[in-house]
Design goal:
Number of strands: 8
Helix content: 25-40%
Radius of gyration: 16 Å
Distance between the termini: 30 Å
Strand content: 25-35%
Amino acid sequence: MQFNFVTRENEHDFQPELDAFFRARHAVYAEELGWVPRSDDGLEIDPFDTSAAAYLVVMDGDEFVAGSRLVPTHLPHLLSEAFPDSCDLIPMPRDPAIVEWTRGFVVAHRREGGGLTLKAQCCAAVMEYCLAMGYRQVGGIQDTKWLAIWKRMGWTVHIHGAPIDIGGEAWLPAYFDVSQVALAGARRWGKVGAPLLSLAAPDKAA
């Protein structure tokens, strides 16, 4: 399995993988979940897919299997624009050292048994990247079903607001401290003992 973060600095090296990411995202968020309209070009791209975004792209050989997106919170992001009143317990982060983590998914046929190991590996890759970039926290609108798992991973969870119903499921704004402890916990659950990212983290987007 190959884990890479794709940004504006290195996207020229990952165009086929990035295209596969947006196509798979459309299959999940438009076709499977129906959260966004279907696109004629088969790509799921929203206003937060800007040059400031960083994408986790996970490949198994030539096959795309999982991905997610990070956006610095001092810029417009999904939580700030789609759920502006969601943080009724702790103020919404608007800080270049805190990044929103959204659009995470695993393709349907790789979810056997819940796909927990692969999801945990993705969590480890995100923590690796955030540590390399010097980010302090990562999070955003999160599925409440994962809160107990993150805590068992040893992640420090900060809940910023009450649950929100999205597609019949409970989601809430939550952020996690970026730390070596969190990375170690995700690696343990993901059954990996070494760094996952195959490229050094690029310069932080402005």
